[in-house]
Design a protein that fits this description.
The protein is α+β, with helices and mostly antiparallel strands. The chain contains five helices and four strands; from the N terminus they run ααααββββα.
């Protein structure tokens, strides 16, 4: 009887110890979302103008803010084109939209992922080595877990940038087109 009890206890402990690995699928899914962001939209703002904003990548809230900003920019481009001064510069996205540094980055590494129930933060370290000295910084990608999986909800920029976060940057951009 004692041998059976020890056997059942050992099996129970093995399964409960394996529970700690449940976080890995979330980390993997979050890493995939961050990599998708910087693969699809990272190095050039042309991508936001030339393709639909992904509902699989961004939260509904961030997707709407992005679409509003893109629409405002496209409207300003048309307004300038049809004005008496079509050679003026319209309000467009300049610099790297999804990164703190205006010039963008030459490489990035996901340093850590922290999951808190239905939200997560991914710390992403960037490097820009096209200048001397090279510049490194860390942005924080905020994600939410929806019924359809993890979605990027915002990006908090490092202090080297001129904006606090992506949603604020986009909201200010839309407001600037309305002045």
């Amino acid at each position: 009887m004692k041998k059976q009890l020890f056997l059942y206890l050992a099996i129970f402990l093995i399964f409960t110890a394996c529970k700690k690995n449940d976080i890995q699928p979330a980390d993997k899914a979050i890493n995939e979302k961050v990599n998708a962001l910087y693969t699809q939209y990272g190095k050039s703002n042309e991508a936001v103008y030339n393709q639909a904003i992904s509902g699989d990548l961004f939260s509904k809230d961030l997707k709407k803010v992005l679409e509003d900003a893109i629409q405002a920019s496209k409207a300003d481009i048309e307004k300038v084109k049809n004005s008496n001064h079509p050679d003026e510069k319209p309000l467009i996205f300049e610099g790297a939209m999804f990164s703190s540094l205006y010039e963008g980055y030459t490489s990035y590494t996901i340093k850590s992922v922290t999951v808190h129930d239905k939200t997560a933060e991914a710390l992403v370290e960037f490097e820009y080595n096209m200048a001397t000295p090279k510049v490194t910084w860390t942005d924080t990608i905020h994600l939410i877990n929806t019924e359809k999986g993890w979605r990027i909800d915002d990006i908090t920029f490092d202090k080297i940038g001129n904006s606090k976060d992506l949603k604020t940057r986009l909201t200010q951009f839309v407001q600037s087109t309305q002045q």
